[in-house]
Amino acid sequence: MKFRQFAFALLLASQPFVSNMAHAADKAVVTPTATEAPVANQNSAGKLNINTASAEQFMALKGIGKKKAEAIISWRTEHGGFTSVAQLAEVNGISERFVTEHQAELSLN
């Protein structure tokens, strides 16, 4: 009988802690993963800014690996940035087809 009373008292005593843990989970902060583009490199429509995106952000696009991402950044640095999304096709290894297929995901600002 004493065990039951002890277990019940323990259950009642732990209730405030369990309740606080549930409230803390409701207030959890969600941070972006490494593959998610920061807000600074996306416009209001969620498009990737090709003039500011990092290699990791380019690699999140289907068909872009590390070498192509680095080539895009090198071209951007050498030419002072892109003046149009279509200009992305001037990068070695990036086809016009790729630009056309991903145009909805890309922007200049």
In short:
By secondary structure, this protein is mainly alpha-helical.
Q: Which architecture of the domain at 39-107 per CATH?
A: Orthogonal Bundle
Largest sheet: 2 strands, parallel
Unreliable stretches, pLDDT < 50, 5 or more residues? Answer: 33-40
Helices and strands, in N-to-C order?
Answer: HEHHHE
The backbone outline, from C-alpha atoms, is rod-shaped
Number of helices: 4
Helix content: 40-55%
Indicate the CATH topology of the domain at 39-107: DNA polymerase, domain 1
- Structural class of the secondary elements? mainly alpha
Q: For the residues shown, what is the average pLDDT?
A: 79
How many beta strands in the DSSP annotation? Answer: 2
What share of residues are in beta strands?
Answer: under 5%
Strand order of the largest sheet: 1-2
- CATH class bucket of the domain at 39-107: Mainly Alpha
CATH homologous superfamily of the domain at 39-107 - what is it? AF1531-like domain
Distance between the termini: 71 Å
Rg is 25 Å
What is the secondary structure topology, with strand pairs?
Layout: H1 2-26, E1 48-49, H2 55-59, H3 66-79, H4 96-102, E2 106-107
Parallel strand pairs: 1-2
